[in-house]
Fold this protein.
Amino acid sequence: MSGRLLRLVCTAAVAAGTVLAPLPAAAVPEPEPRERSVADVLTDLQRLYREAEEATETYNATAERLKAKRAEVTRLDAELSRARLSLHDSRGAAGRLARQQYQNVTDISPYVRLLLARDPEHALDQGRVIGRLARERAKTVGRMTGNEHRADALARKARKALDDQLTLAARQKKDRDGVRKKLHDVEGLLASLTAEQLTRLAEFEKKGVEKAQEELTASGALGEGEREPSRAGEKALRYARQQLGKPYEWGAEGPRTYDCSGLTSEAWAHAGAPIPRTSEEQWAQLPRVPLEELRPGDLVIYFQEATHVAMYAGRGEVIEAPRTGEKVRVSPIASHPILGAVRPDQPPATEARYAPVFSGS
C-alpha cells in the first residue's frame, strides 16, 4: 500500500454522498449491511489520524520533560557529590581544631600566657593571634554546619528528582502504548478496504486538497508577492529540504526519520535558533504572524489542537513530515485545516500583527 493512500484527512467535504462499491453479493441473497459513503470512511480516518497525531505530540512532550528531568538528576548528583566532599573537608578541619584544643588543655592556656606576659606589646600581639584563631575556628564550625545543611537539602532534591524521573518514565511508556493503539486502529480501518476503494479514496483526497488550495489562494489570505526569508529562516529551510524523502516515524527527531515537529525543531536548531519540541508548544510560545506575511522558514500550525506543523517553503507550499507510512515531502499549504503561523526568529518586541486565518478544508 503506498504511503500516498494514507493522507486522507482533508477530503470529507468533497466526498460527501459518494458511495463505495459494495462487496460481491453472496450466492444466496441476504440483507446487505448499510453501504458506507466515502465521507463516512474519511470522517473515521480523519478522526483516527488526528487522535494518533495528538497522542504522538503528547508522547513527545512527555519525552521532553523526561529528558529535562534526567539532566536535572545528573546535575543534582554532581552538586551533591561536591557538597559531600566539602563536608568531608570541613569535618576534617573541625577534627584538627578539636585536637589542637585538646592539646592546649595539657599546656598553659594562651589566655594564661597572656596574663603572665611581662611585655604588654608582646601580650597584645598574642591577643590578636588568639582572636584570629578564634574567628577561624568559628568559621570552620559555621562552614561545616552550612555544608551539612546544603548536603541534606541536595539529597532531598535529588531523591525527589529521581522519583519524578521514574514517574515520567512510566508516563512515557503509557503514552507510547497509546500511540501504538491509535496507529493500530488506523491500520485496521485501512485493511478493511479493498484496493479499489483505497484508490477511490486517494482520488477524492487529491481533489479535496486541490479545492482547498484554490479557495485559499483565491481568498488572498497568502498576500501578494513572495517574501524573502531571514538568514536563519533560509538555513532552516535548507535543512528541511535536505530531509525530503526520509520516512516519517512518530517520536523521531532525525537524522534518518522524523515526525512533524521533530523536523521543524531540528531544522531551526541547525539554523541556530532552538525552538520547542512539540507543535503545541511551538504554537503556544513562538511569535505569531498572519498568513499574508508568511515568509519561507515560518511554521504553519494545523488543526484546532495544534497537533501538526509544517515549514513554509514559499509559493503556497510547505515541507512536512506527514504521518506513518509517508515520507518528508513538499505539500500544498492547505493540505490540512490551518490554525495559524509562527515565526521562530521574530523578536518578541516587534511581534507581527496576528489575525484569524483561512481554515482550509
Summary: The chain has a mean pLDDT of 76. Residues 120-191 form the longest helix (72 residues). The chain is about 55% helix and 5% strand. The two ends are 25 Å apart (CA to CA).
